[in-house]
């Protein structure tokens, strides 16, 4: 383990000028300590390879106190870019040695580590930005939510599309009746890519652990097994023990759009059609349907996810009401809100651009009398929202009270995938009805 050096100030560019006047009169432990400057927080990062690298760079205007990563190779680029920042393999050493000198922690690790690491950060009284999904099982999601709500830390789930202005535009347009009454939503995605897919009916055969990887720390709370490159560093997501397949990877982004736009409750029923099911890995392709009860602003709603590849060919909807066939053909990721008056369409897995309305006659009619802007627009993106929540002592825009129900809804789809049977869910009691196989999957393995 590398001996820690004194925490240093490391700035990639000048702090955003607009933040310069924010008061630092914050005395409570959950707020900024006096050692932090008005412009910057003191941050630590657990997991700095892969998407973790992007999180470091997005927050590099702040004081980077320490890094932790179990994989020296994946972390090497960030370590080289910020050589003055001490780094560790074990996140517990980071928390032990720097607890008094950090305000917040960003966790960007495989999903199965989220509960263990996230709860440790919360227990230490540090604000937490945790990459999506919140966790790979229903029980773990609920535990993280409980931990967050019993503390005073500011949490943010890393659904970074939540910070897009177009998400607010979508909500305003739907509320104004751009599609009429929404009756169904169709989602499709090109994940998982064939090059990343793993199908297995048994654990992977073990090989020697690379000297640059701490395999025991990578496994964390999951039961011991030999190392395999079919698990780490890049293919863990398709194994049920570590992730929950492409549905929780991209589905959480897509359901974030739906949750924000439609205020979804827990679903009444979830059912799935999939490729060959396995007790070990997620399917190559699937079609999953969620059914939601009627609400004050709409009737009953069905949401359909179609994703993956069958025989090397991307699986897509055959048709989407109102959507031109050529647009469906050329779009690999899409979200379509189908209503009584038209279809609102976003050609992405997030609300990254304002929606199109079909038929085009309906779009022209609606655009001629746009509704007023009534929702506040985000400033500075999803990471900045978390930073501002800490400074202003307010909830972030996607705290765990939002992220847990969101992730749970998506995970229910994986239970339908895994069992091949409908899933009826009692969210209040954390209980699956009439499906013992799915009920056995509420908690993590081991």
> Number of DSSP strands?
16
For the record, the count of structural domains works out to 2
The share of residues in extended strands comes to 15-25%
Q: Which regions have little confidence, pLDDT < 50, spanning 5+ residues?
A: 1-36
CATH homology superfamily name of the largest domain: Dihydrodipicolinate Reductase, domain 2
What separation lies between the terminal Cα atoms? 29 Å
Q: Supply Rg.
A: 22 Å
Shape: globular
Annotation field: number of helices: 13
* Major beta sheet summary: 8 strands, mixed
Q: What order do the helices and strands follow?
A: EHEHEHEHEHEHEHHEEEEHEEEHHHEEH
Q: What structural class is derived from the secondary structure elements?
A: alpha/beta
Structural features, described:
With 446 residues, the chain is an alpha/beta fold. The protein folds into two domains: 17-162 and 383-398, Rossmann fold (3-Layer(aba) Sandwich), CATH 3.40.50; 165-197 and 239-376 and 407-433, 2-Layer Sandwich (Dihydrodipicolinate Reductase, domain 2), CATH 3.30.360. The chain has helices at residues 51-58, 72-81, 91-98, 114-123, 138-149, 165-175, 215-219, 245-262, 325-330, 360-367, 381-392, 400-419, 436-439, and strands spanning 42-46, 63-68, 87-88, 104-107, 127-131, 155-158, 182-189, 269-274, 285-292, 301-310, 313-314, 334-339, 343-346, 356-358, 424-426, 431-433. Strands 7, 8, 9, 10, 11, 12, 13 and 14 form an eight-stranded mixed β-sheet that branches. Strands 3-2-1-4-5-6 form a six-stranded parallel β-sheet, with helices on both faces. It has a two-stranded antiparallel sheet with strand order 15-16. Helix 5 runs antiparallel to helix 12, helix 6 packs across helix 8 (245-262) and helix 8 (245-262) packs across helix 12 (400-419). The protein is globular, with a radius of gyration of 22 Å.
């Amino acid at each position: 383990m590398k001996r820690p050096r004194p925490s240093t100030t490391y700035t990639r560019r000048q702090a955003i000028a607009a933040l310069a006047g924010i008061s630092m009169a914050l005395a409570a432990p959950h707020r900024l300590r006096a050692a932090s400057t008005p412009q910057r927080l003191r941050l630590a990062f657990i997991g700095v390879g892969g998407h973790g690298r992007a999180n470091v760079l997005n927050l590099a205007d702040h004081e980077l106190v320490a890094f932790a990563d179990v994989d020296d190779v994946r972390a090497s680029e960030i370590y080289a870019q910020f050589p003055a920042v001490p780094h560790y393999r074990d996140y517990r050493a980071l928390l032990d040695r720097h607890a008094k000198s950090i305000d917040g922690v960003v966790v960007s690790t495989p999903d199965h580590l989220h509960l263990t690491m996230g709860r440790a950060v919360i227990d230490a009284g540090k604000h937490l930005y945790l990459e999506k999904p919140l966790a790979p099982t229903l029980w773990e999601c609920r535990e993280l939510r409980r931990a967050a709500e019993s503390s005073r830390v500011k949490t943010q789930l890393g659904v970074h599309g939540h910070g897009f202005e177009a998400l607010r535009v979508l909500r305003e347009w739907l509320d104004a009746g751009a599609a009429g009454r929404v009756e169904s939503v169709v989602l499709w995605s090109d994940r998982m890519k064939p090059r990343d897919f793993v199908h297995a009916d048994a654990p992977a055969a073990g090989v020697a652990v690379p000297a640059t990887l701490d395999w025991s720390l990578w496994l964390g709370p999951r039961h011991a097994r030999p190392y395999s490159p079919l698990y780490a560093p890049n293919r863990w997501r398709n194994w049920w023990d570590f992730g929950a397949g492409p549905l929780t990877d991209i589905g959480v982004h897509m359901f974030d759009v739906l949750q924000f736009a439609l205020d979804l409750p827990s679903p009444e029923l979830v059912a799935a059609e999939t490729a060959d099911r396995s007790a070990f890995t997620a399917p190559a392709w699937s079609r999953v349907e969620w059914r939601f009860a009627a609400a004050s602003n709409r009737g009953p709603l069905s949401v359909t996810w179609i994703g993956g590849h069958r025989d090397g060919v991307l699986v897509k909807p055959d048709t989407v009401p109102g959507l031109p066939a050529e647009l469906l053909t050329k779009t690999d990721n899409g979200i379509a809100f189908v209503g009584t008056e038209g279809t609102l369409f976003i050609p992405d897995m997030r609300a990254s651009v304002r929606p199109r309305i079909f038929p085009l006659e309906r779009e022209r009619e609606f655009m001629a009398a746009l509704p007023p802007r009534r929702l506040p627009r985000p400033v500075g993106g999803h990471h900045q929202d978390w930073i501002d929540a800490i400074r202003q002592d307010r909830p972030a825009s996607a705290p765990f009270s939002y992220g847990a129900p969101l992730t749970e809804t998506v995970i229910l789809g994986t239970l339908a995938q895994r069992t091949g049977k409908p899933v009826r869910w009692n969210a209040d009691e954390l209980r699956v009805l009439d499906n013992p196989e799915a009920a056995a999957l509420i908690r993590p393995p081991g």
